Amino acid sequence: MSKHPTSKSLIPQSPNLYSPNLQSLFPNPLIRILHCIETIASGGVEQTLLTLIRGLDKKKFHHRIICTWKGGPVAEALEAEGIGLIPIGSFKHPLQWSKHKQVLKVIREFKPHIIHGAIFEGMSMAAIGGKLGKVPITILEETSDPQNRSKKANFLLRLMSNQADVIQAISSNVGRYLIEKTGVKEDKIRVILNGLSLSEKKEESELDQIQEYLALLKNELVIGFVGRLFDDHKRVSDLIKAVKLTKSDTLKVLIIGDGPDKKSLMALVNQFGLMDQVIFAGYQSHNQDFYSVMDVLVVPSSREGFGLVAVEAMLHGLPVIATKVGGLQDIVLDQETGYLVPPFSPESLAEKIQLLIDQPELRQEMGEKGRQRALAHFSAERYCREVENLYLELLRKKGIEIRE
Fold first, then answer.
1. How many CB atoms lie within 10 A of CB 351?
2. What is the pLDDT of residue 15?
3. In order of start, what are the domains of the chain with their CATH numbers?
4. pTM of the predicted model, to two decimals?
5. Euclidean distance between the first and final Cα of the chain, in Å?
6. pLDDT tens sequence across 117-174
7. Distances (CA, A) of 204 to 42, 201, 213
8. What pLDDT, on a 0 to 100 scale, did the predictor assign at position 29?
């Protein structure tokens, strides 16, 4: 950008790996996509990447993934799809040259048409690797709602955006953040909402097994939470405080997930005398199995780039009570598919939880509306189609023709 004339020095030049006649270099009809991401564990970003790779035509697209670390069911699922995962270790800082040298090595071997980076480390890999490696197309994907990101990091993202063809935002709120706080040019931003596949409905026998595993009675009403137990972000403490304010003889709270604040949250449950009401089920590799025993999902986040768990719950026919932050505002329709409440407000959460405790018909109505909304707007098919259209649009703009 003109305000920062020295910004080009951050990304030095290197010989072009691609000749002008790109077709001669790519005789194979597959479009090669190099994805750059931070860890591949069990988060929403990597789950969405798995959805994309499963949903794109394998006869048309060939994928490879560079990450800082891999492990768990999502990594196993990606490898089962035949995707090469290349872990290069954690970054000390986004401009660590030893890491970018490893990215460049992969680029020179794989020769991608498109490099697509998500999460800050992934975006730095894509921006710098795409520039140095002369990759024809660079996409940076902002997957968070980075309200606490430093001015220095925002400045660096603005510099990286100069190297990108498109900045993909996972919600309209994230798109606004990029424009207003980071200074990314509006014409570079493309909002593509995440999508999910509909899981198979649980058989009655499977449902009984899950209820037995959790020691749940059939007449108990279950408020669910799914996510990492990091209270600065996910605010499970607000949910626990809200439960203390509600009145029900059959209410249970099911918390799926683990994290650094588990002990303090358990201590809060003990302090409030809610030990018989709150179930800490720990990390579960298949979260979707547990929506079948929930009646309501609560997402009490302080910030949220998208909020994939809200979509998961809606696909299972659950009403969702969520905080009015980030991408959750694109998912939950207030008073139709659930409720949007102010963040950091246990009292507001308690009020809406009590409404849904007292009105089973309302729970059912909101849950069905939510399911229909999720199927219409947040399907894996829609998401994969929009990303594929973006890829093909950018290839056409660069004059790269892939034979079908």
1. 16
2. 36
3. 30-196+380-397 (3.40.50.2000), 204-377 (3.40.50.2000)
4. 0.86
5. 38
6. 999 999 999 999 999 999 999 999 999 887 778 889 999 999 999 999 999 999 999 9
7. 27, 9, 14
8. 55
Contact 344, 356 (CB under 8 A): no
- Distance (Å) of CA 246 to CA 231, 294, 297, 320, 343: 21, 17, 16, 17, 18
pLDDT at 56: 96
Pick from 24, 31, 33: nearest CA to 59: 31
**Cβ atoms < 10 Å from Cβ of 373:** 18
Task: Give the model confidence (pLDDT) of 24-44 as tens digits.
Answer: 344 455 899 999 999 998 888
**Contact predicate 161/185, CB 8 Å:** yes
- φ, ψ of residue 254 to 5 degrees: the values are -110, 115
SS3 content of the chain, % helix, strand, coil (to 5): 45, 20, 35
**Distant-in-sequence, close-in-space partners of 240: CB < 8 Å, separation ≥ 6:** 253, 265, 268, 269, 272, 274, 278
| Cα(307)–Cα(227) distance, integer angstroms | 10
Would you state the pLDDT for residue 1?
A: 37
Please give the Cα distance from 374 to 233 (Å, whole number): 24
Q: How far apart are CA 156 and CA 163, in angstroms?
A: 11
Buried b (16+ CB within 10 A) or exposed e, 215-229: eeeeebbbbbbbbbb
Tokens of 359: 């009105």
Spell out, as residue ranges, where the chain has pLDDT lower than 70: 1-29, 200-202, 402-404
Query: Which strands sit side by side in the sheet containing 84-87, from one edge to the other?
Result: 84-87, 61-67, 31-36, 114-118, 137-142, 166-169, 189-191
